[in-house]
């Protein structure tokens, strides 16, 4: 028998209290200098459901850097532009390696495993950028995110983007390696400039949960992509959205999810809800430590799972 849904506001308040009291908060990403100074004590969570008010707790109205969560939105744009032709340039298998790994890219001749590891996301951005300028591409991305969230205030933090342009040596290495295999169509600095800016989109948990509604589907959700595409993006989030921690997230939470090194996670309960959680400290996979724990609690208490 289906589990009865508990009242969500007290549940989010309780999850926030537990997270706030937690002593082991993980480690804030410091390889992007502008993110190193983010206060690790912040925690926010929000649930958006089609046609219902957003429920939220903690620092759910504080903007944070969505980083790799942006890869979900760019993937939706790339599929809209190329359809299944995208898969000739990037795969759809979990990598089992860290998000910025070079290892498989060399073994597999410049064909990245999936659109969520950095190499695959760089190819995805490169595909959307082809035939357009970085400004147009980022404009299209912001239009998509703002339409999904129903919020025109969402913007890109230029300082975060610049901070990564100055220090993103691994991403430059990946881009040049892709270029050497003919799998980058624009100059590396243009594709990476676009990619770093997309990662520097700032959103609150409330905005991100609402933006995730386009992946929930059903009556009242914004219809920005087809139902078939919703299924496929969710499948990729489930199998690849947490990098080499994707199996662990599926085991503990049981929902499609996409993480970012800013400490945000977007998870989807198909047909029911989109959830955003944010806590800047990361686990050893580079995914939010308390965010994952909070999602595990929320899934257990609501019974929300795709299994
Ligand atoms: O390219 C990078 O390294 C960052 N802009 C994004 C990486 C990221 O968010 C990985 N997620 N956990």
TrEMBL record:
EC number: 3.5.1.2
GO BP: glutamate biosynthetic process; L-glutamine catabolic process
Keywords: Acetylation, Hydrolase
InterPro entries per UniProt: Beta-lactam/transpept-like, Glutaminase
This protein's record includes keyword Mitochondrion: no
Catalytic activity as recorded in UniProt: L-glutamine + H2O = L-glutamate + NH4(+)
Keyword Hydrolase: yes
Pfam families to which the protein is assigned, alphabetical: Glutaminase
Top enzyme class: hydrolase
GO molecular function annotations of the record: glutaminase activity
Transmembrane segments: none
Binding annotation for substrate: 68, 118, 164, 171, 195, 243, 261
Protein family (similarity comment): Belongs to the glutaminase family.
PANTHER family assigned to the protein according to its UniProt record, in alphabetical order: GLUTAMINASE
NCBIfam families (UniProt xref): Gln_ase, PRK00971.1-2
Subunit structure, as described in the record: Homotetramer.
Protein name: Glutaminase
Organism: Roseovarius mucosus
Name of the encoding gene: glsA
